[in-house]
Design a protein that fits this description.
The chain is α+β, with helices and mostly antiparallel strands and 94 residues long. It has a domain of 45 residues. The chain is 45% helix and 16% strand. The chain has a three-stranded antiparallel β-sheet, with no helix packed on it. A hairpin with a 6-residue loop joins strand 1 and strand 2.
Length: 94
Amino acid sequence: MENITGKINPKVYESPDGGLTVYARDFGEPHENCLQAWTMPVSDRDKDPIIQAVRQNSYFVDQELCEEHPDLKAKWEEFRELQRHYQAWDLLKK
């Protein structure tokens, strides 16, 4: 996307769900300005080897399931906070 000066702004691409959905925003813009850039069709998700590898990881989060079940989402967020705590603790011990 071009900015006011006519130059093309570099983009930042982010995916909160392991690549199933990709969001884009201009470099330097806040996260709130993300727009959905791409979504993998549901029919292709089980066939994709990268998605299969991500799902085999014990830390894979099923975003759709979390959205359907607020208690699951809350527990996942609790786990992430605890994980960050231990990561910080490990950094301090080094």
